[in-house]
Design brief:
Elements lengths: L3 E2 L19 H5 L3 E7 L5 E6 L2 H13 L6 H10 L4 E8 L4 H20 L31 H10 L13 H10 L14 E5 L4 E5 L1 H8 L5 H8 L8 E4 L1
Parallel strand pairs: 1-4
Antiparallel strand pairs: 2-3, 2-4, 5-6, 5-7
């Protein structure tokens, strides 16, 4: 895959790039469009878009040669058959506008999706949308485009066990949602069911029960002060003394 093929017929047989062997390398460097990396042994291909076709080809070639390409299927095929059995083909030149490139790539993607659904998996691409590739997390062109229900579920599944948010502050609205959705009172997993004995020196009243009920009786929401009484850090609170 040492040169770009300029007049090959598209492997799908539905698009043929206009031949132009007189095109200069400098001009080609400025070209944007749709390309394919085709396995000459079995005809399987990888399809993509680029605003700079030559630069993108060089990136693919380098990553494949160093065994670090983001597409595992293409990389394994490259390792098996060798670079001489692959060709880079420009199948369609497209005006250098991201929206037009996405629309053009979508046509090819829909084509290989139809082929896969019919049992003919002739494409190395793993992502079945035009926003794929290695830079999805930072893809500015994805902004403003709603995710499908399926995409949302995939994202949710992918975040299970994710520890990347550790140490990051939670927004006020997020905290409120957590509190609102948390089990209340005795249903809370952090609820202290231990039974304590207290005596109120002001009222000569005895109390036997858990701290939740004692706090409820006294009309307070935080039981930490009673923990201090239990630990001996305070002698009493509102007259209540801890009895061992």
């Amino acid at each position: 895959m040492n040169s770009i093929e300029l007049d090959s017929e598209d492997i799908m047989n539905d698009t043929k790039m206009k031949s132009n062997k007189e095109i200069s390398k400098d001009t080609l460097n400025q070209k944007s469009g749709i390309y394919k990396i085709i396995n000459k042994i079995d005809g399987k291909y990888y399809v993509g878009r680029s605003r700079n076709i030559v630069k993108r080809w060089k990136t693919h070639n380098r990553d494949l040669s160093y065994n670090r390409h983001h597409n595992d299927y293409l990389q394994r095929a490259w390792n098996k058959y060798g670079h001489d059995n692959f060709e880079f083909v420009v199948v369609e030149y497209v005006e250098n506008k991201q929206s037009l490139l996405i629309d053009a790539e979508e046509r090819y993607i829909q084509k290989f999706i139809e082929e896969r659904n019919s049992g003919n998996n002739n494409c190395y691409n793993m992502n079945e949308n035009s926003y794929g590739g290695p830079s999805i997390p930072n893809n500015q062109f994805r902004k403003g485009i709603p995710h499908s229900i399926e995409d949302k579920q995939k994202i949710s599944n992918g975040l299970l066990g994710n520890t990347n948010t550790k140490g990051k502050p939670i927004s006020k609205s997020h905290r409120e949602n957590i509190v609102e959705g948390s089990p209340k009172g005795k249903d809370n997993h952090a609820y202290n069911h231990k039974i304590y004995n207290f005596y109120n020196k002001n009222t000569n009243e005895h109390f036997t029960g858990n701290l939740y009920d004692l706090c409820k009786k006294e009309g307070i929401t935080v039981n930490s002060v009673f923990h201090k009484v239990i630990k001996g850090e305070r002698t009493h609170h509102k007259g209540w003394m801890f009895i061992n």
